[in-house]
Amino acid sequence: MIPIYSQKNRIKFIVVIVALIIGAATITYTNILVSKLSEREQELVQLYAKGLRYMINAPSDDNIVFIEEEILSSNTTVPVILTDEHENILDFKNISFPENISDRRKNQLLQREIARMKAQHAPIVVPWAEGSENYVFYKDSALLSQLRYYPYVQLLVIACFALMAYFAFSYSRKAEQNRVWVGLAKETAHQLGTPLSSLMAWYEYMKSSPKFENEPITAELWKDIRRLEIITERFSNIGSVPLLRDENILQVTENAINYLQNRISSKVDFTVASSFAPEITAKVNVPLFDWVIENICKNAVDAMEGRGSIRLQLSLLGKSQIALDISDTGKGIPKSKVDSVFLPGYTTKKRGWGLGLALAKRIIDNYHRGRLYVKSSEIGKGTTFRIVLNR
């Protein structure tokens, strides 16, 4: 059984597709508006050019005044530059300049504007006297330019808010998961206390009773009591900040495997190897780190169906980290499931809560400030988990 939030990749994909559809619709609609506004501005400039042509052959001064006031002056938004056939500037409209600018500097800026206008629109030719021609250069108004880029700015703002909401949701979810983990750990440690106290009392009774003198069951009972004490300590550490110490990592790993070997299938072969000096240490909390190795190895034994080999290889990663690779000869993990194996509730077993690897990753990532991930996996050949610890 996989909880709903474990389907986050699929949900993210759906959200991204919906966002892309909304973004595409927004951009398309805005581009339609931009196109219509651009056409109107072109018509306005065309009307401006027609007004200039009419003024050349106007029959009376009244008509010229009308054309100038009602047509030429009506353009208050579209930047326009009028030049002769040699692109000498004759007039311009709707172009602003800094105060106290020299005529030379103004002319330079107008020439730059002409270059920009050429890049946007072809100039309009206005026939002039004696066969000469004038040119009307123009570009998009500030309103049209803003509208053209508006959807992209809008999408950027929406994306920023979406990211903020996503991180806020993720933080809230992690905080809730943390409270569940801590509550579960403390309650488990509390519940283990009562039967553990009873077992210790029975152990003391058996140890002092002549009836059980030299009985191996007494020693085995003590081992199990010590094991329960370690488990209780593990859960207590989950509910608090564990203390990390510099431990001989090779010795700690060998001790964990020695304990496991006597409690799982004898058909599983364990190997512990190291590529560095035996005295190398790493910062670990031994009870919790043993728990991680136990969970990974038990999952490996299940994947091998109780028959195969598990190799633990220690190596240095630079000067500040140590890697522990745990490799098995099990079924392997499909690529589509590699990211899911650490999710609480993910399990391929008929009986199981799917908490082992999730708990192991939490112990390494959160408490040891290290990393636990699937280094490699191949169907039918096995899987390698890598634990990265700090020295």
Explain this structure:
- Residues 187-391 form the Histidine kinase domain.
- Its EC number is 2.7.13.3.
- InterPro entries: HATPase_C_sf, HATPase_dom, His_kinase_dom, Sig_transdc_His_kin-like_C.
- The chain crosses the membrane at residues 12-34, 149-169.
- GO terms for molecular function: kinase activity.
- The chain has 391 residues and is an alpha+beta fold.
- It is 54% helix and 18% strand.
- It is built from eight helices and eleven strands.
- It has helices at 8-56, 61-71, 103-120, 142-208, 216-238, 249-261, 286-303, 356-367, and strands at residues 80-84, 89-93, 124-127, 133-138, 245-248, 268-274, 281-284, 308-317, 321-328, 371-378, 382-390.
- The strands form three sheets. A five-stranded mixed β-sheet has the order 6-8-9-11-10. The chain has a four-stranded antiparallel β-sheet with strand order 2-1-4-3. A two-stranded antiparallel sheet has the order 5-7.
- Strand 3 (124-127) and strand 4 form a beta hairpin.
- Helix 1 (8-56) runs antiparallel to helix 2 (61-71) and helix 4 (142-208) runs antiparallel to helix 5.
- It is rod-shaped and about 135 Å long.
- Residues 1-6 have low confidence and may be disordered.
